[in-house]
Amino acid sequence: MNAGNSIALIGILLLLSACGGSHDAAPEASAPAAETQGAASSDGTDGAGNGGAVDASAAPAEDDTLVAADIESILGGNADDYRSAFLALQKAVAASDKDAVAQMVLYPLDGAIDGKQTIRDAGQFVREYDRIVTPAIADAVARQKFADLMANKNGLMFGNGQVWLTGICEDDACEKQSILVTTLQDTSDLDN
C-alpha cells in the first residue's frame, strides 16, 4: 500500500470513529426510509393497507439541503415555508383548482397571457386560467422537484422560468413573508 492510500485509509477510520462507527463493526440494522414513511405499493395505496394515496409531504425527502440553504441565505426566507408553497402550487395545478392557484398569485400579474396581458385580480385569473396556465406551464410545475429549484434574488424558478415563487414581505422588517407566484410565462421560445 502506498503512502497516499494509507493516509486516505487513516482518514476514513478517523471519520468512522468520530461518528461512533468502526471499520469492523457491522452497520446497525434499520428499516429503509420508504418503509418507515409508508411508501406507495404497486396498487397505488400508501403501503399501510388503508387504501389512502401517498402524501407527497410524507414521502422521503430529496436531498434539498442546497436549495434550502439558498432560500435562507439569498432570499432570507424559511425553506419550510417555500417548500409548503411549492407543494401547494403543485397540488392545485395538478387538480386544475383555478381558485386555489389564483389565491397563490401576486397581483397585478404582468404579461401572463401571450407575454402581453396583465391580470389585475383573482377573478380575472380564474376567468383566464386556461390561457395563463397553459399545458406547458402546468407540465413545468408538475415536473419540478424542490431540490432542483434555482434560487436567486428574484425567488425560486421552475423549469426554464415558466413560474417564479417569491417571498413578499408583510412587515417592514420582513420577518413574515407570503410566498406567492410572481411570474407565469410561456418560455417555449427558450427551449430551442
TrEMBL record:
Biased segments, Low complexity type: 26-45
Keywords: Signal
Signal peptide annotation: 1-25
UniProt name for this protein: Uncharacterized protein
UniProt-annotated stretches for the region Disordered: 26-56
Highest taxon, organism lineage: Bacteria
